[in-house]
Structures are given as structure tokens and as C-alpha cells.
Amino acid sequence: MKQLKRPTRLAPGARVAVVAPSGPVPEERLLAGLDILRGWGLDPVAAPHVLDRHGQFTYLAGTDAARAEDLQRAWCDPSVDAVLCARGGYGVQRMVDLLDWEALRAAGPKVFVGFSDITALHEAFATRLDLVTLHGPMAAGTDFIGSERARDHLHATLFTPEKVQEIATDGTPLVPGRARGTTLGGCLSLLAAELGTPHARPSAAGGLLCLEDVGEETYRLDRYLTQLLRSGWLDRVHGVLLGSWHDCDPYDTLRPMLTDRLTPLGVPVLENTGFGHNPDALTIPFGLAAELDADTGTLTLEEPALR
User: Fold this and answer.
1) From the candidates 22, 116, 147, 244, which is the catalytic residue?
2) What are phi and psi of 66, to 5 degrees?
3) Active site residue 147
């Protein structure tokens, strides 16, 4: 798996655009998030359609065209240093094919942050732009607004990434061992849904695969993992990190299925690592060479996430 390009770290005064590629954004949470970003010395700008609501489909933040236009304009604006997603939900898969990928590539590398439904954009940015992205808290997310730990880890990743080059988790080994590879992944259901689409990676071979999800019953998570296994997408993966499973079945119910599906891969698996839909979510860079040590619960990046 090839190394991707690292964007430049942020500094006080950096201009960051906040976009809503997926679900509708509560205004009060957006305003709270913008205030936090200003407190970091950044210059946050909300995209024109960030508070839109789709007239027919209430689960979408405005039309597909408007959501794509906001992301396109923000990325291609030379004054913008980073693009932060406001929230997840659903909708990226409806708008991602409307983006002009040649124009996005020509605009050069920038910092990109999001998770959940944004998994589809992490995949697209990796395959189309060869770009390192950040799987982390979003600007109008309850974790970003409510958790000092989540904010601090994202802040360090954005401003002083060498300080979080070793990501220490509270995780424990589901399968012990150490492995090297390139980080990738995101929301399990999105990775399964992306199979066969124009922007999906052909496989996770050579990767340290990060998996998490929210609000799913165990049999559905089993189905997503089984789909990835049957398709061959997990062949030659080097290691697996399991994040949060918020609002899924109790972990005692979920864990045997994860053990059954993942142990036959014969690679280290670290569970309970604290990224994803977790009130204190860690930020995990995607597209970097790293070492996973399941026994110590650490993920060590070979270089800082941002230049």
C-alpha cells in the first residue's frame, strides 16, 4: 500500500472551512464548534449551505449539488488551509460523484477531518488525491464540543502532530502481536457499502485497518465483515484496530462475533481503542505508515500526520 501525501499542519490564523457533506447540522452545535475553533486561533468559515435542509429528504443537509458545491469551493479556495466536516449522518455517497476530482487535485493537499459517513470521502481522498486525511471529531459533533480529551488530541494532531506520533490507547489485544502497515478504514458499514464503487480502494492489503460503527445490531456488523471477507478485501491486511461500537449491542454480545470473523486473518487485533463514535474520540490519521502493538495498545506513526 503506497504512502500518501501529508498536508501542512495548521498555525494560528489558518483559515478553515466547515462543510456539511452528509446530514443536517444543528445550528447551536455549529455555533459552539465555530467558537472553539476561534479559541484555537483559527479563522473558521461556515460554507454557504452548511445549515441547509433538503426539502424532501430530511436526513440530508441540503441538495446533493449544494453539498458537493460547498466542498468543491472550500477545497479549491487558495485561502482555505483545512476543510472540517460539521457532522456525519448520511449523504456522502449521493454527492461524491458530483465532485471535480481533477480540480480538487490541482488545488493541492489540505487538511481534511471527519468520520462516520465521511468514511466514503476518506476513501475517495486516498484513491483520487493520494492524500493523508484525519479520522477525527467534527466541528458540530457532540464529542468535539463536549470532550476536552477529544479536542486536545485533535488540536495536537493539527498543530503539533509530532507530539501525538505515538497514539496510546486504552485498548487490549483481541489477538496479540505487532504489525506494520498503512493506516486506513473508518465506519464498517460504509466500507462495506463502498465496495465496487469508483472511489473505493481495491483492498486493505498491507494496511492497519481501523474499524468502528454506531447503532448496528450484531448480525448486521457480522454481515458487513463477512462481505469484506468474501470479497477478498481483507486479504493480506496486516493488522486491525477496533474502535467504539456506540449504541450497538452490548460488547459482550458483539465481541464473540468479532473474534470469530477476525481471528482467522492471523494478524494482531487491538480492541477498545477509543476512536469513532465515542465521546472522547481519538484522532487517527489515515494513509500513514505505522506500527501497531496490540500488547501495549499503541499505534506509532512513522512520521507526524502533518508536515
Assistant:
1) 116
2) -70, -40
3) no
Q: Mention every residue, 6+ apart, whose C-beta is less than 8 A from residue 138.
A: 33, 84, 85, 86, 87, 88, 113, 114, 115, 116, 118, 144
277 catalytic per annotation:
yes
Number of Cβ atoms within 10 Å of the Cβ of 250: 9
Span 107-160, pLDDT tens digits: 999 999 999 999 999 999 999 999 999 999 999 999 999 999 999 999 999 999
Q: What is the pTM of this model?
A: 0.98
Grid cell at residue 17: 472551512
Question: Residues, the chain, total?
Answer: 307
Q: CA 92, CA 119: separation in Å to the nearest integer?
A: 9
Catalytic pick from 49, 135, 199, 277?
277
Q: Does domain 15-164 have CATH number 3.40.50.10740?
A: yes
69, 123, 194, 212: the catalytic one is 212
Whole-number CA gyration radius for the chain: 18
Active site residue 79: no
Per domain, the residue ranges of the chain are 15-164, 166-301
The residues, ordered by sequence, that sit 6+ positions from 171 with a Cβ below 8 Å of its Cβ are: 241, 242, 270, 271, 272, 273, 274, 294, 297
pLDDT tens profile 163-193: 999 999 999 999 999 999 999 999 999 999 9
Nearest to 194 by CA among 220, 227, 159: 227
Contact status, residue 24 vs residue 30, Cβ threshold 8 Å: no
The CATH class that applies to domain 166-301 reads alpha beta
